[in-house]
Design the sequence.
């Protein structure tokens, strides 16, 4: 029994040390990134771009489509969603693949702002969470959703909803139809796969997933969904 306890405490100690090192690396990445340019300055820089779109300038159904397919509990949780992380963990174990990540919209914004080129996934995830905490301390949910739609990549060199709307449909975001908005909402999940100019059939398949999610979470009726071309 003593040997079992000793082994248990040794393993626990190793786990604590490894966890501490991993967190320290993530914290170092977070601190270095914000020392290079503060969160407030980064947001100001993004907002100053000609392509920046305020949340009032996009249709409600586009915003709802994003939330439904990317983070349906967005308005309910904080910087991270423990339920989504647990669900993704179980799903990945069952499928034996990394199909789900469990990242919130706020975490995705953090990644887009600072860590889009970071290769160390574990350190990046920790740094993302720390930036996400800062985001939710300093900005509203609508602000963060606005940052999201202005920083996500839509393929074909288009960053943000204005570039994507102009590029794919030759129109401003406020003029997007429900069909166009639901299709664009699905693209950032994998732009190289779902960009409508690259794989129109896969883009439509992803759009159907977006529409199903909107029905599931009460943003569309089934009748409205059935009428989307």
Sequence:
């Amino acid at each position: 029994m003593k040997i079992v306890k000793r082994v248990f405490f040794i393993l626990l100690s190793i786990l604590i040390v490894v966890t501490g090192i991993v967190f320290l690396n993530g914290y170092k990445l977070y601190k270095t990134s914000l020392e290079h340019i503060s969160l407030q300055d980064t947001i100001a820089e993004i907002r100053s771009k000609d392509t920046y779109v305020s949340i009032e300038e996009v249709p409600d159904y586009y915003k709802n489509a994003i939330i439904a397919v990317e983070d349906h509990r967005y308005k309910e949780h904080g910087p991270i969603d423990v339920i989504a992380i647990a669900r993704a963990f179980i799903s990945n174990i069952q499928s034996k693949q990394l199909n789900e990540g469990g990242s919130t919209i706020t975490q995705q914004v953090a990644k887009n702002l600072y860590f889009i080129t970071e290769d160390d996934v574990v350190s990046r995830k920790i740094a993302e969470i720390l930036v996400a905490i800062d985001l939710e301390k300093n900005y509203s949910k609508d602000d963060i959703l606005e940052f999201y739609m202005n920083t996500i990549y839509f393929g074909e060199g288009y960053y943000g909803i204005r570039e994507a709307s102009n590029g794919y449909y030759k129109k401003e975001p406020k003029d997007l139809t429900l069909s166009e908005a639901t299709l664009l909402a699905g693209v950032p999940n994998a732009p190289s796969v779902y960009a409508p100019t690259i794989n129109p059939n896969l883009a439509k398949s992803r759009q159907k997933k977006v529409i199903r999610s909107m029905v599931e979470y009460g943003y569309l009726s089934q009748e409205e969904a059935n009428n989307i071309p």
The CA atoms of residues 76 and 141 lie 10 Å apart.
